[in-house]
Design brief:
Two copies of one chain form a homodimer. Chain A is α/β, with parallel strands linked by helices. Chain A folds into two domains: about 270 residues, Alpha/Beta hydrolase fold, catalytic domain (Rossmann fold), CATH 3.40.50.1820; about 100 residues, Rna Polymerase Sigma Factor, Chain: A (Orthogonal Bundle), CATH 1.10.1740. Chain A contains twelve helices and twelve strands. In chain A, the strands form three sheets. An eight-stranded mixed sheet of chain A has the order 1-4-8-5-9-10-11-12, with helices on both faces. In chain A, helix 4 packs antiparallel against helix 8. Chain A is globular, with a radius of gyration of 21 Å. Chain A starts with a helix and ends with a helix. At the A-B interface, helix 4, helix 5, helix 6, helix 7 and helix 8 of A face helix 4, helix 5, helix 6, helix 7 and helix 8 of B.
Amino acid sequence: MNDADDDLLENTRSEPGEVGLVEPRDFIATGSFTFDNGQSIPGFTLRYETYGHLNAARDNAILICHALSGDHHCAGIHSLGDKKTGWWNNLIGPGKAVDTNQFFVLCANVIGGCQGSSGPSSADPRTGQSYGITFPAVTIRDMVRTQKLWLDSLGVKSLYAVIGGSMGGMQVLQWGIEYPSFVKRMLAMATTAREGAQAIAFNEVGRQAIIQDPEWNNGHYPKSGGPRVGLAIARMMAHITYLSDTSMDRKFGRKAVAAHHKPAPATDVSELSMEGVDPVAPATSFNVQFEVESYLRYQGQSFINRFDANSYLYITRALDQFDLASAHGSLETAFAKVEAVTLVVGFTSDWLFPPEQNRAIAISLLRAGKRVSYAELSTDLGHDSFLLESPQLYDLVRGFLN
Amino acid sequence: MNDADDDLLENTRSEPGEVGLVEPRDFIATGSFTFDNGQSIPGFTLRYETYGHLNAARDNAILICHALSGDHHCAGIHSLGDKKTGWWNNLIGPGKAVDTNQFFVLCANVIGGCQGSSGPSSADPRTGQSYGITFPAVTIRDMVRTQKLWLDSLGVKSLYAVIGGSMGGMQVLQWGIEYPSFVKRMLAMATTAREGAQAIAFNEVGRQAIIQDPEWNNGHYPKSGGPRVGLAIARMMAHITYLSDTSMDRKFGRKAVAAHHKPAPATDVSELSMEGVDPVAPATSFNVQFEVESYLRYQGQSFINRFDANSYLYITRALDQFDLASAHGSLETAFAKVEAVTLVVGFTSDWLFPPEQNRAIAISLLRAGKRVSYAELSTDLGHDSFLLESPQLYDLVRGFLN
């Protein structure tokens, strides 16, 4: 899409608005839930947000599925003056690509997560203690099945669309397979029907960083503690895989940090402080020297303040074990019962879930005789492209939904 | 090069032989050495090996420069029955591409290393204690300048060639710049004149894994201990960057390990054992599930038994700080005094030091008016391609040297 087209479209659009203040709510399932691995828990909670209104026909609901480190807060703000909007606020809102004037948009923190939904850091009602690693192993299908119970409780009769990127895209595909008549449209971006060895390998190194951290203690740690160092290392490494070589070079290149630069806010990151090093060997400091180092340390440090290490282990396992072809014999067979119309979007610079893997989903849906489009967007922003400002993506989403 | 050419060449070659038994020796410099950062040490050792014989004219010497985790042992075996040959044994030997019948081949462990050359794990003669992080910061230029003192001591009057891949390639370029009349040929592979932000980022995560390991203890640890967990994590992650997505998929794909698989030898890797986990949560094991995980754990574990964590910090810093353009104003200026004939070899699947970065070296040498060739080999084996069996590479090297 060229600039002229953009200008033309801009003139016909009303200025998009903001979702504004939102409040998370909890869906509390009181019945026992049995996971794919056969283990059960006596009940569970999904924390969620909604934007817009369910129409009388109850058929205008759009479910947003989040990625590994995301949560239910995908649009709006939590308080007046809150500067941090939901993670997909650029896509979701009145007049935006996912138009909350038209659609009832919902998003829940996945089961196994740590932002209010039941997961390893939740208390096991049978013991009063945190589940830790006694929480049952979670699969993408478990995420989807718990979401279905929640949507049923809200009276949603069908999904106008399910939308997600990365692990969110895996859930999208699982939704279309698991509840074919419930799902009218699937929109999966920057995703895969199964990870390759390299993606598994990066997840495994992250898990090892956590598990080998003595503070992990077999998954038993206080909420304020735990394997913070290991989790930060895992996040720093994973973060590199979300970007591209080109975008990192453009953003940081080999820029050195200023001499008195503080790598990150000092609050609550004592175990990542390097202060002990400098006096020992002023000329051999391993303190931050390049801006990209400072950026990564900040990413690691901010992550440990919002994410549970056990959840990271559980969710990366869910990612690695997701394999539609293996679960159904082939990808075409997996998609045999799908009724939804599908749009798959790959991003050229995504080397974590590369375009080929997105294209393979579309091709298998085609082979299974389904209605599917595939779009490949030229970006140099890597895997995270689906989260970033992109008029091309907005137009694709808008066009697909209308 | 096609198979027919290969066959033709084979017929004219004698069967390559083996270097056979070799014994490392030490060059001990008793004078003070001042590093690029201005700090000095009262003397230093370089451990090295040689293969073949220096001729009467003393002009048939070929220096091999090793990469981050390599050492001086690049060919032959250390004892009869030794199954592990030197790391470039496929390239170096009687009748091989680097022909020890014709050339006097030398390789030394870099200064800052841990395989016998002076580095952080060596004793500081002034204190009797290990240097730890009081060892001066090391640069690629320091590596080259210490190697020059060693070659001078052996009576080598000029280098017929300097050959190296990855960090070895950086030393090759620095040799040609630092000692232009001494170096007749430069052969640099899978290298860069400066790393991009992504490569720095991966190194930084590895350093953080080490530094944040409580056992690092500001660089003071016993030889048998130290930040073994952090070093293993660093190595596992780095190892992914040495391979390619394609080669990992071919080698491991999503293959699961056998139920009773032991991820790695049990000797001396107690801190990486997962045995404590299984009984706690049989259904949520984070034990190895995919072959690629088992492979990576083995890579991490074997590395900690042979490499010093402080050396890893020092050498990755040397890699990150190497920047010929910045040191000389531009890459063309850096190469202005080079007298050597140069061959640069890039590998298509190398995403750590990608072909563009290798090509940029050749282009700058050309712009500086130097004699240079650039070859790009199509491989799908990633950065490590330069180390692996490749008749194409052997023919390139042979052709360049003769």
